[in-house]
């Protein structure tokens, strides 16, 4: 079975879904509420399983041309003492390929490039979807890839599950030098992370209970080990992005509705960024949905395909979201002595 599909949202999950559906022979269009795509430069960590999904979608090679491997990352105290290593080497040994990091604009451009190559997948900007019922009536498949405040989810799944604050403010940015020190530093109620992103630059992120200005953020990390203060001092605050951390709660009982609607990415399971799996889960959702449609719909119809997608992805994605939220609590605790002791005992 093929037909017409509309994807609401042009983030990573939405673009990847559109690629997969178009490859499966569907007629696809994309609606995006913004007037242009966001191109801020934060780094996405792409796990080997998500890399394999990108390969199946046909964009793995292009993605890897702009990605960098993530190795040698440590968890440290604010004084710089190493508590543990992140399990990146273990992941690489098991998967046969390393964790990769890519700047968000590069991943978006890779996906857009694949869509442009088809030449027949319209992407319409400034489309603030309100009438989801009309989309359902006019298409064989509607995919909600419209983020944590998803209009598709609210319309078809109700408002019981929605964005919930967790009481933490996050800041992200890019420093124009390579720090040479990667991983995360865990303090009391706050933490700071640094990763590679591309030659000559360092991706950084910080979370604190509250900070409304650049100077307040710098004050939270005054006296921390090098190069944390230097990164904040030498990165222009005008390039920083601040947001209040939220997650989707409670977990949805299903990712599909009515045999015609499916959710992917943050619309289905928005999570805290602590495990670095937001982009990965969106990619895995997109590939699983389009594979289910391709494999199941011809024989048993679209409702059966959507049930297969839900069975494959819902519990897995929700386990990741649950683990990420619990890791946030663990990392941001005020009881650092016990936390640090536990971290030292973790296998590397």
From TrEMBL:
It holds the Pfam family FAD_binding_3. Keywords: Monooxygenase, Oxidoreductase. The keyword Oxidoreductase applies. The keyword Zinc-finger does not apply. Residues 5-321 form the FAD-binding domain. This is NAD(P)/FAD-dependent oxidoreductase.
């Amino acid at each position: 079975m093929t037909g017409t599909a509309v994807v609401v949202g042009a983030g990573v999950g939405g673009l990847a879904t559109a690629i997969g559906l178009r490859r499966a022979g569907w007629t696809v269009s994309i609606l995006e509420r913004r007037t242009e795509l966001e191109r801020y430069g934060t780094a996405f960590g792409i796990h080997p399983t998500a890399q394999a999904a990108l390969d199946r979608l046909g964009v793995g090679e292009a993605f890897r041309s702009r990605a960098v491997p993530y190795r040698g990352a440590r968890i440290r105290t604010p004084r710089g003492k190493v508590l543990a290593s992140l399990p990146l080497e273990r992941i690489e040994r098991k998967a046969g390929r390393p964790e990769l990091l890519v700047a968000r604009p590069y991943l978006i451009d890779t996906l857009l490039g694949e869509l442009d190559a088809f030449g027949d997948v319209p992407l319409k900007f400034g489309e603030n979807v309100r009438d989801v019922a009309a989309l359902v009536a006019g298409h064989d498949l509607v995919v909600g890839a419209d983020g944590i405040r998803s209009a598709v989810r609210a319309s078809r799944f109700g408002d019981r599950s929605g964005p919930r604050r967790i009481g933490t403010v996050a800041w992200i940015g890019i420093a124009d030098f390579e720090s040479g020190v990667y991983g995360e530093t865990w303090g009391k109620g706050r933490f700071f992370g640094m990763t590679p992103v591309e030659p000559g630059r360092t991706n950084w992120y910080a979370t604190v209970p509250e900070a409304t200005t650049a100077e307040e953020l710098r004050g939270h990390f005054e006296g921390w080990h090098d190069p944390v203060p230097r990164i904040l001092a030498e990165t222009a605050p005008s390039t920083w992005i601040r947001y209040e951390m939220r997650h989707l709660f409670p977990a949805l009982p299903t990712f599909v509705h009515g045999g015609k609607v499916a959710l992917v990415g943050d619309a289905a399971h928005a999570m805290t960024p602590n495990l670095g799996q937001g982009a990965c889960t969106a990619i895995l959702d997109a590939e699983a949905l389009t594979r289910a449609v391709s494999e199941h719909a011809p024989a048993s119809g679209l409702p059966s395909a959507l049930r297969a997608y839900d069975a494959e992805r819902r519990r897995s994605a929700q386990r990741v979201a649950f683990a990420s939220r619990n890791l946030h609590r663990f990392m941001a605790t005020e009881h650092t002595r016990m936390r640090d002791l536990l971290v030292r005992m973790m296998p590397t």
